Amino acid sequence: MNELKMIDLFAGVGGLSLGFEQTGFEALIANEYDESIAEAYIKNRKNSNMIVEDITKLPIPETFGKYKGQVTLVIGGPPCQGYSQKGQRKTINDPRNFLFKYFVEVVKEVAPQYFVMENVPNLLTAEKGYFKQELEKLFTELGYTINAQVLCAADYGVPQNRHRAFIIGKCGKCQVEMPKKIEKRTTIWEAISDLAYLESGEGVEVSDYRKAPETEYQKRMRRDSNKLYNHVATNHSPIALERLAMIPPKGGKEYLPPEHITKSIYSGTWERMDEDDISVTITTRFDTPSSGKFTHPYLDRAITVREAARIQSFPDSFHFFGTKTSQMKILLDSQHLLGHALFIGCKTIEDIANVIKNSVVPLLEEYFFDDVQKIQLIFNDLDANGDLKATAIYKHEDLVADGYFPYAGDYMIDDKKHFYVSDNITKESLEQVYI
């Protein structure tokens, strides 16, 4: 009988729990409020005790108390909107930020030996570290010692520059150590080269593999999968195909003539992914070359849902359902993408620190904001929502744009409108982009 039991909160599609399941854990109960996302969780599991409901509406003792003494681990990623890095937020007063207290309440109710919480990096720095301090206080009062750090997925075998905050707690005085980085990163081509044959508009939802796996990463992703799902290429417009045909491997919009240059708030537009590098952070419109650095390294098309899933380290046995828009939403259920590949190889719960290095999330040994420099930006007045409305901003070419601002794990904007970047990014390496 499996003795490694867990509870999965704010479960999303189950990315975080998938890694634990692959290592021998069993989810006794899961909770997700979004019906379409919860459906993907259920369809990708033979047995799932999923409660589809807003956790704030659940009676915590009655719902979870019955599992006290049965679970070793509680995992989850409370929604992150209130402490995101997108401009000014009065985060301390934002009720969305206090969903993490429901995570704490479940831990208090079931008293697991361990818990793992993952979230956006800003969780640990927002309001001058208020949330980190609050978490430490709440869990210390429950008898846990925590370790909280920002980790990068690329440092643990995932071919993507994605960063997440991890808070790992252990009952007692002993702290769980974070994993060490691996020596060799997995490249984009090592992840998707066996899928490199579809042209624009080609592909079906379920097909046979055309090529044998070419790397160890591909063998790992194909494990337990006999069919290829979700490998369908975007049907690009003639003008888009004309532009893509001009861009060579590792090239970008610098190869386009002036009449083909388009205005965009996104960095990496009309730029091919570098086969020898890791991917930028995958964002919601990765099916469109004008939305970021998501054009295939060689083919004249954007990457498919399956290729994006490979880059996220979702195994091929994990399927995405509905329209392409729905599939992308499920795949990019942002606070849960990481965690499923990291826990392979864990034999006992005591190995949890080593397990994380095999998971699918962003892991990193040191935090971006240990050493920062301030760069004053040019902004207009605040908009009606209190968010900064930019007419011109400075951003590093590798940052990914999202909404009003470029968005990535290596910067934030404080309440004085200062732009913080890691100290290896200089002012000279920033470029002015008009939106």
Structure description:
The protein has 435 residues and is of the alpha/beta class. Helices cover 21% and strands 17% of the residues.
Major sheet strand order:
3-2-1-4-5-7-6
Please state the structural category: alpha/beta
User: Residue-averaged pLDDT, rounded?
Assistant: 75
Based on DSSP secondary structure assignment, what is the total number of beta strands? 16
Q: What can be said about the biggest beta sheet?
A: 7 strands, mixed
What is the tally of helical segments?
11
Helical residue percent band: 10-25%
**Euclidean distance between termini CA atoms:** 58 Å
Order of helices and strands: EHEHEHEHEHEEHEHEHHHHEEEEEEE
Strand content: 15-25%
Notable features of this structure?
435 residues; globular; alpha/beta; seven-stranded mixed sheet; three-stranded antiparallel sheet
Topology:
Elements: E1 5-9, H1 15-22, E2 26-32, H2 35-43, E3 50-52, H3 60-64, E4 73-76, H4 100-110, E5 114-119, H5 126-141, E6 144-152, E7 163-171, H6 188-192, E8 206-207, H7 216-222, E9 228-229, H8 238-246, H9 305-312, H10 324-331, H11 352-356, E10 372-376, E11 392-396, E12 400-402, E13 405-407, E14 411-413, E15 418-422, E16 430-434
Parallel strand pairs: 1-2, 1-4, 2-3, 4-5
Antiparallel strand pairs: 5-7, 6-7, 8-9, 10-15, 11-16, 12-13, 14-15
Helix pairs in contact: 9-10
Summarize the model shown:
It contains 11 helices and 16 strands.
